[in-house]
Structure formats: C-alpha cells, structure tokens
Amino acid sequence: MPTLTYPHWRNVPANTWRWPNFSAAEIACRGTGAIKINTEAMDKLQALRDRLSKPLIIRSAYRSPEHNRAVGGAPASKHMQGTAFDIAMANHDPAAFEAAARAIGFLGFGYYPRSGFMHIDLGPTRSWGDPFPVRPVPFAPELPPAREILSGSRTLRGGGAAGAATVGAAGVEVLQDVLAETQSTIQPLVPYLDTLRWVLIAIALIGIAVTIHARLDDWKRGQR
Fold first, then answer.
1. What is the pLDDT of residues 37-73, one digit of tens each?
2. Interval 78-94: pLDDT, tens
3. Contacts of 188 (CB under 8 A, 6+ apart)
4. pTM
5. What SS3 class is residue 109?
6. How far apart are CA 49 and CA 145, in angstroms?
7. Is 129 left (phi over 0), alpha (psi -120 to 50) or beta?
8. Omega before residue 124 within 30° of 0, cis
9. Based on C-alpha coordinates, what's the Rg of the chain?
10. Sign of CA pseudo-dihedral 59, 62, 65, 66
11. Among 7, 129, 134, 198, which one is most buried in terms of CB atoms within 10 A?
C-alpha cells in the first residue's frame, strides 16, 4: 500500500491531496505536525465519509513515534503507520458508524464511550473496550427556535413597568405643584402625594433593574 511521508503537513503538494472532505492538517501528527499518508487508509476514510454523508471529526490520525509515546499510545499503534483514525461520535450513532466502517473495510475497532470516540484501523481484525451504550434514538430532534411573544417578554415587562412608573412619578410631581399653588383646601393631601411620587420612582428603578437583568440573562443564554 503506497505511503507518503512528509516532515510537516505544509510540505504536502496541494495537487497530490485527493480527499476533498479532509485536510492534511487534521491527518497530521498533533504533536509534531509531521504526516504519513497511507493512501489505502485515506481512500477508505473518504469512502466512509461519503457513505455516512456526515462530517467525520478526527480526534487523532497519524502519530509520530515520540508523540505516540507522549500520549500513552500502544507501542505498535497503527496510528504510527497512518492506518488508524480516532473519530468523535458527537454527530454519529455509534452502531450505524461501526456498521458503515466495517462495510468499507476497516477491521480494528476500539471503543471509548467515556471519551466519546471510536478507533478504527485497517487491521488485523480485533476489538477492545466497552461498546457504546445503545441510544433510544440516534439524536435528539432539532426544533426551530420558538417565536418570542413580546407580551410575555421579561424585558418588555420590566421596561413597561419602568416607563409607566416614571411617567406616573412625573405626573404626580406636576399635580403636587398644581395643588400646592391653587388648591389650598386640600393641602393635607400634598405630603401623601409626595410619598406616592417616591413609591412610583422606586417602582421605576425596580423595572429598570428587571430589564437589565433580563437582557444579561438572555445574552448569557445566547438568545440575543
């Protein structure tokens, strides 16, 4: 099986790279940047990608001997030959992925459910690790974002309360001045109006605080 080796993935001639869904950088050694391209393994990897019609997130492909030792790889790891790939299962149903990989011709399988990836290589035929637990459904359904109802918006409620209270406080202040100047017969009400004005101002401040909190909370949740 043809194997091409380069001291760094940037040295790979662009016109020789024939696997459209992968880049030399993601196949290269994570520790040194060196790359060993086993064309048979890469052809099968591309065939697997075509069969699944989903991206393959590569956690590890080629490893230089020194990097393999650094990460605790097996002394005769297939990664050092460029014939092994660790693929994340975040966007795949492990059972369907394994079936497709076997159909393509991968023979070695390592299961790492706690780390969330599956190892595949060209053989010999063997397997290790605990299989991934069976999922009730491959993935949770993706739902479109619900349309926000403005009448139920915390931001709108808080802003509305602040606005209404501010206008009310201003109105009470004007009414207080008018009563103080023209309605001497109801002067005893003026202190109560002053208290009402401060109550409305307090409500306005609370409304503003609610609005700010709601906007910060929405921002944290990625809703804005």
1. 999 999 999 999 999 999 999 999 999 999 999 999 9
2. 999 999 999 999 999 99
3. none
4. 0.62
5. strand
6. 29
7. left
8. yes
9. 33
10. negative
11. 129
Task: For residue 179, count CB atoms less than 10 angstroms from its CB and return exposed for 0-12, middle for 13-18, buried for 19 or more.
Answer: middle
Give me the sheet containing 108-112, strands edge to edge.
58-60, 84-88, 117-121, 108-112, 126-128
pLDDT bucket at 224, cuts 50 / 70 / 90: very low
DSSP 81: G
Q: Which residues pair with 3 in a beta bridge?
A: 38
CB–CB of 79/68 below 8 Å? yes
d(CA 129, CA 120): 12
Q: Which two tokens stand for residue 181?
A: 């100047």
Q: Closest Cα to residue 53, out of 109, 94, 95, 92?
A: 92
For 175-206, how does the pLDDT look when each residue is reduced to its tens digit (9 = 90+)? 556 555 555 555 565 566 678 778 888 888 89
Kindly state the tokens that stand for 5: 């080796």
